[in-house]
Amino acid sequence: LTIFTLTLIVTKWIIAYSLLCGGMISVVANLVMVQVMFNRWSRSSPRNAQRAFYLGEIFKIITTVALFIPIILYLSPAPVPLIVGFTLSIIVFWLALLFSGRAQTVARQG
C-alpha cells in the first residue's frame, strides 16, 4: 500500500491502480495457498502435509491465472505496472522470509 500511495502521488492514477492490482493478485493467491496448506487434513500425517503443500501450490497458480485474466480483460490496467506490482509483492514475501529467519537466529544467539 505504501508503494501504491507513493505512485499515486508521483504518477498517474492508472499506474498506481495497476500496481495495486498486481500486488493484490499475489496476496490473494498466497492466502489461497495458505488456506489449503494449513487445514485439518494436512496436520494428520507428514504425507498429507506434503500433499497439502503441493495442492496449495497448484491452487496458488490456478488462482493467479484466474485473477490475472479478468483483471486484464475487465479492469484494463497498464500491463507493465501490473506485472511489476505482482513481482514486487513476491519479492517482499521472499525478503520477509529471509529476514525473519535471520531475526530468529540472532535472537537465539543473543
Distinctive features:
mainly alpha; 110 residues
What does this structure look like?
- This protein is mainly α and 110 residues long.
- The protein contains four helices and no strands.
- 86% of the residues lie in helices and 0% in strands.
Structural class: mainly alpha
Rg over C-alpha atoms, rounded to the nearest angstrom: 17 Å
Form type:
flat
The percentage of residues in β strands lies in under 5%
- Stretches with pLDDT under 50, minimum 5 residues: none
Total of DSSP H or I helical runs spanning 4+ residues: 4
How many β-strands, per DSSP? 0
Mean pLDDT: 86
Distance between the termini: 34 Å
Biggest sheet character: none
Helix content: over 70%
- H/E element string? HHHH
Write the layout of secondary structure elements.
Blueprint: H1 2-10, H2 13-37, H3 46-75, H4 79-109
Outline of the structure:
This protein is mostly helical and 110 residues long. It has helices at 2-10, 13-37, 46-75, 79-109. The model has no long low-confidence stretch (mean pLDDT 86).
